[in-house]
Amino acid sequence: MKKIGILFGMENTFPNAFIERVNSKDSGFIAEAVTIDKVVQADPTEYAVIIDRISQDVPFYRAYLKNAALSGTAVINNPFWWSADEKFFNNALAEKIGVPVPKTVLLPSKERPENTSETSFRNLAFPMAWEEIFQYIGFPAYMKPHDGGGWKSVYKVVNPHDMWHKHEETGQLVMMLQEEIEFTDYFRCYCIGQKEVLIMPYEPRNPHHLRYAAEMKATGEEGEKLLETIKDYTLKLNIALGYDFNTVEFAVRDGIPIAIDFCNPAPDADIYSVGRDNFEWVVEAAANMAIERAKTQVPGQTNLTWGTFVKDSLGMSAPTAPAPVSAPAEVESAKAPEPVAATAPEKAPASAKEVKVKTVAPKKAPKLVEDKGILPVPSEPAPKIPTKKAAATKAPAANSKLKKS
After folding, report:
1. Residue 357 has pLDDT above 70, yes or no
2. What is the Cα–Cα distance from 61 to 100, expressed in whole angstroms?
3. Which site in 17, 38, 73, 385 is 20 to 30 Å from 201, CA atoms measured?
């Protein structure tokens, strides 16, 4: 009998309810908490499906899940994509598929990463174009990690001086600066299996246990249209990213839902925070999705979900990875990936064209410096370092229009 496993940490209500719900259905599958007693490379697990709720915090679990996926387990969510994903990229992808997002820019870390020096930043302008950045984003704004979550290291900044002051606290974190959205309605949406959507009114300014105690303000035809648009945007984002279990948050400004946060592949599902009705919905939807994935799982093959961004880039026409094919070692040029589709239906990729390989001889060999008793080695000029400042960011010059306020 195929098994459905759930990997989790301190949470109790959702994992236990999920296991009981799957086992209550006459599906031919049994659900249980994952047990790991050894992890041998390329060895399959006993699970057809694993729901992952904790590997973002436990690197050992993430490595275990990748090994399990390689050997045929359908891991939800895809551990390879989740390892590569981050919020700044998600915002950029959302723009490409037509989902509104706040204006956002990326900021280099305040402190240099370990094992780097001034030379490592020779391509970074000092100072950066702060006037243009601040004019584009405006104030007040929010500064947050480009790949973080759980409202950790999130700062509200009211002017440039406030931003530089708070940026001092961020260390080696790569931050992004994002415009503030003044909203009339706010929603958090579960998306399960890239087809089931639950839209929940949400108030992020309330204490944690009261955030779901909110009511939708838009009514009538306006409210119905708003909910339809939110559902459409939620599906577009999860299909493009490839998540089977995620939440998306929207802030509504002037009737337009703006996606604020949509990288939550282990979202809160505790009955004491989301409420009994929402809890019941997510348990049932997750159980049905897991059973459906277990039915289609093929042992020994890749059974992961990939988003349209990856599939279009690689020319994949199915959710699973294609059989490996041999490729030329060198190519003269490569075709740029097609843009991500804005709707769920996908077109079959065009046939790949053969690329001729051209060998080009170097124009001139590097000069060699002789050293007695040692083989000749290429000489390299001393690098040009644009600044002697230790930090990766720098405030504007004294004559800047953006003086401290």
Report:
1. no
2. 34
3. 17
Three-class secondary structure of residue 76 per DSSP: strand
What is the spatial distance between Cα 157 and Cα 180, in angstroms, rounded to a whole number? 10
Task: Report pLDDT for 280.
Answer: 98
| Residues contacting residue 372 through CB under 8 Å, at least 6 positions apart | none
Q: Tens digit of pLDDT for each residue in 291-322?
A: 999 999 999 999 999 999 999 999 875 444 44
Cα dist from 76 to 48, 58, 280, whole Å: 11, 16, 20
**73 or 152, which is more confident?**
73
In which band, very low, low, confident or very high, does the pLDDT at 382 lie, cut at 50, 70 and 90? low
Distance from the Cα of residue 333 to its chain's centroid: 29
What element of type H or E holds 282?
Answer: helix 276-296
Q: Which of helix, strand or coil describes residue 251? A: strand
**If 0-12 CB within 10 Å is exposed, 13-18 middle and 19+ buried, where does residue 342 land?**
middle
At 210, is the secondary structure helix, strand, or coil? helix
Contact 215/206 with Cβ under 8 angstroms? no
End-to-end CA distance of the chain: 68
CA distance 397 to 58: 43
The SS3 of residue 40 is coil
